[in-house]
Write a structure and sequence with these properties.
The chain has 503 residues and is of the alpha+beta class. It has a seven-stranded mixed beta sheet with strand order 17-18-16-15-21-22-23. The radius of gyration is 21 Å and the shape is globular.
């Protein structure tokens, strides 16, 4: 067996990647799926389309690279977190579209929980604030608003899962005995899992009215006892163990080999997510961060992390392309942004889904401020890239306040890191070096690592650390005065977004 594979099911598309023992990409295929916007603030995905795309990218990758299923030691899964789906255990059909993590339809429900004084209960047990971001309120919304979901739940036929659970269930048999499982990194994003016990919490289930029977079994992220195996009739075409499962940001932490307390990374995708490993210690945040599970290698054990979650970063570039028609391809932004020396005094805060860390303002909305007749397309494109970097600085400042650790360098990954100008801006705005690894798709790599560890393809974490290498380090060039002035303007722009929607 020469390879380990991973499915990376993201917000905008699904990728299948095959890695060798050195953690290098051997083959990969990718397909986008439709983004569905039924109402302002609502975001949905067709889970059936995602499963079809998953089958297609697996088949295309293996056939295109002439890789035999017998050459695969294991398969890992990584996924967009907090995107909630309920389906029928007997038919395998979704009972409603998947409600995406960016969706704000649960805002009234979340506000009611806050008004009822329950936010501290969720923070204390689940490590999370009450917010539209998480899966638990979405499950309640589905139960309360979709009759088919309520009927199936009452009959014991409803299965809930984030997208990892949906794919693992299908891969391991679906209606014919598919494994209904998740791991602690995904379960910790539901507002329903107790961080200490690593199990569903009866009090939190009761508050949201979620039947325990519809929830998946929580297993280690790297499972020596596989969740199940693929079948000859499935897209892989043979029995391959499925034994790695990590939410996308925790997978990137694992793929970046941040295994020691105090090590961290930032992933640039649809959103932006900075995680700091806190070891076996659960660190409550006082600065607007999330306390979450980093990964779990043994039943009942976990390594924890502090996380700063930013809702809209790469999605803001998509918005320039799809909604405004300012660009045709994301890759154009580098040259366009380089064509001007600054943003002409404008700032763009893409709070399309409210503000996540460290503000947690469900009522904020996006703004572009500081506009004059001088500002042109290039300035707005540059302001979009700077917004990614300033939001990351907001999180870094909160992380420093919570942990007491001064960041000396930032490991980065994700699709947007190929933009050299973005990485230069990030170093300038943070004032620390930005380190890009040789493999920037570390989300899929982390899932592959988890699966490979489970079957002994890699013998331990030291093997994985040996694979990590630096592609390029970006050093800051701005002086402290320019850095401080730019950040002060950003904070003024943030203030303009707050409480835009009336409570």
């Amino acid at each position: 067996m020469q390879y380990v594979a991973a499915i990376d099911q993201g917000t905008t598309g699904t990728r299948f990647m095959v890695f060798d023992r050195q953690g290098q990409v051997v083959a990969a295929e990718y397909l986008e799926h439709e983004q569905i916007y039924p109402q302002p603030g609502w975001v949905e995905h067709d889970a059936a389309e995602i499963w079809r795309n998953t089958r297609r990218v697996i088949g295309a990758t293996l056939s295109g690279a002439e890789i035999q299923p017998s050459q695969l030691a294991a398969i890992g899964i990584t996924n967009q977190r907090e995107t909630a789906l309920v389906w029928d255990r007997h038919t395998g059909k979704p009972l409603y579209h998947a409600v995406v993590w960016q969706c704000t339809r649960t805002l009234p429900l979340c506000q009611q929980l806050i008004d009822d004084g329950l936010e501290e209960t969720f923070r204390a047990k689940a490590g999370l604030p009450v917010a539209t971001y998480f899966s638990g309120p979405k499950i309640k919304w589905l139960l309360d608003n979709v009759p088919a979901v309520r009927e199936a739940a009452d009959a014991g036929n409803a299965l809930f899962g984030n997208m990892d659970t949906w794919l693992i269930w299908h891969l391991t048999g679906g209606v014919n005995g598919g494994a209904h499982v998740t791991d602690p990194t995904n379960a910790s994003r539901t507002m329903l899992m107790n961080l200490e016990t690593l199990d569903w919490d009866e009090e939190l289930l009761g508050i949201l009215g979620v039947p325990r029977a519809m929830l998946p079994r929580i297993c280690p992220s790297s499972a020596r006892e596989p969740y199940g195996c693929t079948s000859e009739s499935g897209p892989v075409g043979a029995c391959v163990p499925v034994c790695g499962d990590l939410g996308d940001q925790q997978a990137a932490l694992f793929g970046q080999t941040c295994y020691g307390a105090g090590e961290g990374k930032n992933t640039y995708g649809t959103g932006c997510f900075m995680l700091l490993n806190t070891g076996e210690q659960i660190v409550p945040s006082k600065s607007g961060l999330l306390t979450t599970v980093g990964y779990s290698l043994e039943p009942g054990q976990a390594v924890y992390a502090l996380e700063g979650s930013i809702a809209i970063t790469g999605a803001a570039v998509q918005w320039l392309r799809d909604n405004l028609g300012m660009i045709e391809h994301a890759a154009e932004t580098e040259a366009i942004a380089r064509s001007v020396d600054d943003t002409g005094g404008c700032y763009f805060v893409p709070a399309f889904s409210g503000l996540f860390a460290p503000y947690w303002d469900m009522y904020a909305r996006g703004v572009i401020v500081g506009l004059t007749r001088y500002v042109n397309r290039a300035h707005i494109v540059r302001a979009t890239l700077e917004a990614i970097c300033y939001q990351t600085r907001d999180v870094m400042e909160a992380m420093r306040a919570d942990s007491g650790i001064d960041l000396t360098a930032l490991k980065v990954d994700g699709g947007a890191t190929v933009n050299n100008f973005l990485m230069e801006l990030q170093a300038d705005i943070l004032g620390v070096p930005v380190v890009r690894p040789t493999v920037n798709e570390t989300t899929a790599l982390g899932a592959a690592y988890a699966a490979g560890l489970a079957v002994g393809f890699w013998s331990g974490l030291d093997d994985l650390k040996a694979n990590w290498g630096i592609d390029r380090t970006f050093e800051p060039a701005w002086d402290e005065e320019r850095r401080a002035e730019g950040y002060a303007g950003w904070q003024k722009a943030i203030a303009r977004t707050r409480d835009w929607v009336e409570k």
